Amino acid sequence: MAHSESEACDTKNFKISKLPVAVILLVELCERLTYYTLAGTQKIYFQNQLLKTPSTAAALNSVFSMLCYFWCVPGGLLADSIGRYKTIIAAGSVYAIGTICVGISVIYQFQESLGWLFTASCLVLIAMGTGGIKPNIATFGADQIGDATEKQRQCQTTFFSLFYLSINIGVLIAFGFLTNTTTGGLPGVIPQEEGYSFAYGSGAGCMILAVLIFVGFTGSYTMLPGNGLGPARRLIRYQYYSVWNGGGWRAAMSLAGFLCLPLFYIVTLADTLLSASAEKSSTKVFTDPCAAPLTEAPPRMLHGAGGEGVLSDIALALGSMACIFLIVAHVNCSWVRSLGDESQHQHSRSFNVKEAQQSLSALPMIVVVNISFSLCYNSMNNAFPSQACQMDVRLGSSQFNGAFYNISDALAIVIFTPIFETCLFPVISKLKGSPVRLGQKIVAGLVVACISNVSAAWLESKRRDAPYLCGDAGFSQCAPHYTQDGLEGTRMKDISAFWIFIPFILVGISEILVNPCMYCFCYESAPAQVRSLVQAINLFFSGSVSNAFTAVVSKLLYPNDLDSGHLENYYLVNASMAVAGILAYFAVTRCRSGSEINEGRVNELELDGICEGEKSEECKDGKECRKV
User: Fold this and answer.
1) Labelling 467: which of 94, 356, 450, 541 has CA 20 to 30 A away?
2) CA-based radius of gyration for the chain
3) What's the whole-model pTM score?
4) For the sheet containing 482-484, what is the strand order?
5) Angle, in degrees to the nearest 10, between helices 150-173 and 18-48
6) CB count, 10 Å around CB of 549?
7) String of b and e for 505-541 (b: at least 16 CB within 10 Å)?
8) How many other CB atoms are there within 10 angstroms of residue 367's CB atom?
9) Amino acid 530: pLDDT
10) From CA 424, how far away is CA 426, in angstroms rounded?
């Protein structure tokens, strides 16, 4: 992100040690390289090496992401309790052990017998490690700079830009190089069958290096102690107390929404894992379409989506209820009742009822935006690469892995971020006579996310209608492996996989518009005592709850055979959720305009003009009201 001269990081008046900052950036690069190498190819590994059906493999991949983000909330709470440094060390060690186990489990001769170790290491150890690092490493880096002065805060802004850049460098290495080696090896160096062990082993090496580097520079860090869990505990007490002491139906609905979430997780996990364990580890058979008459549709063993079980329906109902209840209950948080002990703590940093209302009032925005956006975003993790694998992925005598095309998302972020910040947003601001608000960026991001999935659906219809690539070179290395007459693989279609860059790039543009705005919203709308917790909740809904929904939708709509199924239905459901999210956003902001909450702080959800008048003390004091 570019900065003007007045906004540049100027260290003349204070001293910043650049070494610990550089170390943290390197640690983040290594961690993200490891994560995306695994997450980007995990679905293909489940599908081709562990012989899961494509729909179950996609669901397992979504469950992995779901659990990684689930652990962000315990990771944030642990950091608040014992400090960020200790939490990062503990989580990084668990992460490294998980990657070592994964690296061992994918050695070619062990793949079948150690499939359980691969699954357990991903869903338990790596998920816990990621959840402990992700909500804390960026904040720990900002701690090295401090925020006592305006210059330090400007340097923190520069750090976050460099931090995001380090993430995308790791993404480019993962998707541009390591993911391709999983299915193709390195000709003359790494045999194809050992591609996964090389790629995942490299990821393990990077994670071990990250932990060693982080520990090795311990003496150079500024380490802030943990503040304890008092504010988080009081927030829970306020919520529970209000249910039984006059909080009304909104308080009961809030409690019901929070209770539905763990049930949603349990049913989703049970549905996915039971389906995976029930599948037989046998090779699927199909009739080679190139050997069949061109006028006949190629008969295949697998058709349609992966499951219509009752557990999927129950999970979808529980998740929908949880989100609807949380949105409706927290549009107006005046139901939060005082505990009656605030006077005893008036001279301390005790968490009061106004701060509790303020914290809970961020939930509608967090739920609406993250669920509607992330369902479209999650297509990038499994559906886009799988679609690419059954297009023409050849380049000369080599083939790209479908996950390779994720590099277009990272490149879009790197290229368009400075364009938006230095050109597009200033021009729009000048034309409209006011700054581009967070809400405007978010709505625009949801529109672009919707278009990305619609374009993928259109591209899928074109792919399915395209002719097959016949001959021995026409089999895809990363598509589902079926066998017939000694040949193994799935036929690619005669349409270039580089067309998949279009939906990938659109997702990258939508990320620029949505994710930074949500980070900013959560930071500015939360009381200082629970900013880490609210940010962790944002990550929880963004990555965990959304992936739980994606796992369920994958079971219901993701076709095991793309050539006879309808993957476009999966995309269109995601696109419709983005449209629903836009409508829900405006509905929430309209409802919030009449609420009597957040009296001590600007209501971040409100649109132009709502912050005028008597509802905000900041407005009364003559301070500028920030509009979303």
Assistant:
1) 450
2) 25
3) 0.80
4) 475-476, 487-491, 482-484
5) 30
6) 24
7) bbbbbbbbbbbbbbbebbeebbbebbbbbbbbbbbbb
8) 25
9) 78
10) 6
Beta carbons within 10 angstroms of residue 229's beta carbon: 15
488 beta partners: 483
Sign of the C-alpha dihedral, residues 31, 36, 39, 41?
negative
Given a contact cutoff of 8 angstroms between Cβ atoms, the answer to whether 1 and 423 are in contact is no
Strands 482-484 and 394-395, sheet pairing: unpaired
Res 11: pLDDT: 56
Those residues with Cβ within 8 angstroms of residue 436's Cβ, 6 or more apart along the chain or in another chain: 425, 428, 429
CA distances (Å), 570 to each of 77, 201, 372, in order?
35, 33, 14
Q: Which one has a higher pLDDT value, 281 or 557? A: 557
Q: pLDDT band at residue 621, thresholds of 50, 70 and 90?
A: very low
Q: What is the pLDDT of residue 349?
A: 57
Which residues have C-beta within 8 Å of that of residue 22, sequence separation ≥ 6?
A: none
Judge contact between 159 and 142, C-beta under 8 A.
yes
| Residue found under tokens 């629903």 | 580
281-311: per-residue pLDDT in tens? 444 555 667 765 544 444 443 334 444 578 8
Give Dmax over CA atoms of the chain in angstroms.
Answer: 84
Q: Mean per-residue pLDDT for 491-499?
A: 93
